[in-house]
Amino acid sequence: MATALQAGVDLANICSGKGYCGKCLVEVVEGVSNLSPPTELELKRIQPEKISKGFRLACQSKVRGNVILKVPDQSRVGRQKLVIMGKEPPVVVKSNIRKIFLELQPPTLLKPIADDENLLSALALKGDENLRLNYTTVKKIPRVLRESGWKVTMTLLGENDVIDIQPGDTSKNSFGVAVDVGTTKLAVFIADLTDGGLVFADGVMNPQIKFGEDVISRINYSTHGEYQLRELQNTIIEGINELIDKGLSETGINRDELYELVCVGNTAMHHLFMGIDCKNLGLSPYPASMGKAYDLTAHEMGLGINPSGNVHTLPNVAGFVGADAIADILACRLHEKEKLSLLMDVGTNTEVMLGNKEGIWSCSTASGPAFEGAHIRHGMRAASGAIERVKIVHPLDIECKIIDDEKARGICGSGIIDAIAEMLKNGIMDTSGRILEGPRVREGNNGREFILVTREETASGQEEIVVTQDDIREIQKAKAAMYAGYMTLMKKSNSTQKSLSEIIIAGAFGTYIDPESARIIGMIPEMPLERISFTGNTAGSGARICLKSIECRKEAQAIASKIRYVELAAEQVFLEEYINAMYMPNSKLEDFPETVNIIKAPKVVKRYVKR
Amino acid sequence: MATALQAGVDLANICSGKGYCGKCLVEVVEGVSNLSPPTELELKRIQPEKISKGFRLACQSKVRGNVILKVPDQSRVGRQKLVIMGKEPPVVVKSNIRKIFLELQPPTLLKPIADDENLLSALALKGDENLRLNYTTVKKIPRVLRESGWKVTMTLLGENDVIDIQPGDTSKNSFGVAVDVGTTKLAVFIADLTDGGLVFADGVMNPQIKFGEDVISRINYSTHGEYQLRELQNTIIEGINELIDKGLSETGINRDELYELVCVGNTAMHHLFMGIDCKNLGLSPYPASMGKAYDLTAHEMGLGINPSGNVHTLPNVAGFVGADAIADILACRLHEKEKLSLLMDVGTNTEVMLGNKEGIWSCSTASGPAFEGAHIRHGMRAASGAIERVKIVHPLDIECKIIDDEKARGICGSGIIDAIAEMLKNGIMDTSGRILEGPRVREGNNGREFILVTREETASGQEEIVVTQDDIREIQKAKAAMYAGYMTLMKKSNSTQKSLSEIIIAGAFGTYIDPESARIIGMIPEMPLERISFTGNTAGSGARICLKSIECRKEAQAIASKIRYVELAAEQVFLEEYINAMYMPNSKLEDFPETVNIIKAPKVVKRYVKR
Question: CATH 3.30.420.40 occupies which residues in chain A?
Fold first, then answer.
């Protein structure tokens, strides 16, 4: 694997080379003898007939000489796939599912013990007492006991529930699903519950997008009636089921051996996943309907795992700070930090969390879909052909890095932030965000436009790729909301700017932001670059660690019950800071001393003044 | 009520005049002013428009002068109805269901508390913590809270589960269903869970009878496949649902306010009700599939109560001593007796229980359907026209009591026992059961027949009603099995005949047996008549008290775990005693000294001798 990655081969590496995911399958075309023999993990994850044809896991094979490999398409990363992954802290696996193999004595005339009592006393001998057998299990018991010659494996959920019986010893086969329902993306992960290994990860666009791009439009759609609410719920459940189906067919796992599903999402996505009325999320005072963690049965929800499997949802903090924020905190360990840290999950809504082990304050800001490329003239998602990096060496000399090194098709979120920061640095616009006259600037139908890529250099060859005045306004509103959210929490928690020691940017989009650009436009407070980190989709990571460890679920509950939520609509300070933050980096320049030195843009700053 | 009963009026009296059941509804035609004014209970149980038309509950109205009443058909007992009732010990009502009325504070911008947390903290203030909201409730919460102006009633099941939310204060509306699934009869009771009052009781033939009359034929049918097992289950569930529907329409109770259903039955009926494979009940060593008590959800079972309601089944002792036997013990308080007592639930199978507070032994005997009138030439169920009492004054002078004083149509179980006892007393047959030559005895196609009712005296006028030699053999086998079961338990428990202090005959059929006749034919041990009691359908009584009191459920569990089951197939002593008991009263005459003095039949007794 290391050899392949060094050679720049596009090879999937979901489990970081641990051999769990089986994603880095390669076909050895020549030089089999120059490879180490297949490891135990390879024998577990690759079908025997494939091994004999020369298929290997790159992460498990050591190269001792020349080898020619073929990388099948399904083992290539593909840029879009990666955005579902995020930093994951190590956790001790402590699954909510336990499987216990039993060898029973059949009943006799002198001891005609009932089947259920026979099972329960064998389990009691192994230390599990006060168990409840669920209805599905009870119905299967007499047949499975006899067909298996009284050798069976029982599946236990939590402390007290028996949810399945299988013939023979299947105690090693135990899998679970972690789901992150984002407003824009849906990610599904399958993990081995015995060792915590990730065996499948995939994401698609949230299929609810047809009902509206942002949270509010979906909430509005759901309020049309019970039918529409069910439609939204069914759409997301079907989306999850399709990814599960894909995971089962790729891994060969038996559906009935997926015993748990842990789901996170923002409060609206959580409620729509659960089919819960979320009308009130859109009405002041924006209360969540469900704040607690829940454990439901898969068949109640129509999810494609074992019908008796457990569906766990993490708690929500408020109407706009949901289970995904709790997952972020868990994955980034914000609740264990010694010093004051800022965690922002940047998305269509950005959740802002400020705190450390002493306590956490949170709020949510409607940053809008601009970072995802929406509402931007040439905006697009981070896919092949998107400008992801911009460097203005001189207004007439612009360097653009384009995903997959293709010709430019548009600009994605990280690219537009770069472009605006560079325009600011180079005096192409003023600190109020107004594009100034100059080279590559032209008058468009809605104000000035800055030409980033000339027509000839684009993929289509039809139209220049530009940054418009309206594009800049969109980004200003988005970044101002985020920064004002942060400042509001600083004031509510009586913290000083100096005490802030670390900034963590979570969210799939965040992975690609240039921290310097973000700092220059004032999206985040000024901070040495080495103390700004990007953790990717930590909502998904939080879901995965909660799937693997019930201790993490307890932590999630503890975080939810302690976190202090600030409703920005009730805070005058938010409005003040929002207006200040519409400037770039901000109208309070004293908070951005270094940035002030970098930018060449004319300063047009009006401070918000209380009347 | 007392006045009506004294006057011989056929008037329902299910709740023993407590005013709960509303069954003794009468219409006052004349003399309203001679009645006491309507009581609170009457106002609760009778619709207001009926009260104004002069409808009253007989049990609540005191008569102070002449009154003319009309008894509507539905308030008449009807002979068949009564057989579902049985003796019920008083219990302190402690329902598994609690309803709690809450007045909540709506969320505000400064405290935008989630709906579920709002509810749960209000419940915690009332002392209920660590509650789980079920999925159905969670889905209703946001709407019901707002539509009700934040005044709602929560329904709690057990210690930790919230299963419903309703607008307003409905805390007084809480009902449950007790079900006794007999092989022959199905009885359904509805009780008020707030005060324990019985508000509805009805029974029908078990609709599974079309699949076979006895337990074994139904087990055989179920083994044909999954479809047949489901067919049997659906048939009984539909039968129960039809009676529930009838109860709801008669009482005006809301289906969603039926929160629990407690079911008893013999092990086979229990398993078929649950849809559990019961093939093994018919195969040595006859183990039950389910021995434990279960709590399931109504919608899983398709039962017509609140879909989130709880279905509780009592534990089974063994393949042929089921939850109904536990219910009998509970209702008859066998587990609290100081002295050794015998409890027999007489039916197609007769469960025999022997013991006291020190311990209980049990077994089951296949007594067959003879007592229900089956396999008897002129046998019929205890309905209008059935001979229920027989007295032979002289072979030429026979007195028969016929149900409803109609002309005889046949003979029911109590009548045939009387007839055989009288034939024995009058020397019409010998102690081996052989009919002797004499008056009213004729040769039939299958041996001799004793003419009980001449052709002219029957309802049809077509054919004499006779007791055949085969009829006597059927009764001999049935009573021998019961007595041998009792004797086996006596030997297993090392008890002496003298220590037996009481005989309790349970079962609908038992209600009508003449204890002297039963003793004469040797169906039960010899015992002074005042120490033989008949308690009726105590399986139903046990189900009812377990519905009303969770303490009774704990008692049931304790009984089930302590009771000692004897599998008669493994006992040589059973076979010996069965052969002895084929004689009447028995070949061991020393155990029946008084009976020996009464009977005039020639003694033809061969004692079973071990070889």
Answer: 332-368+476-598
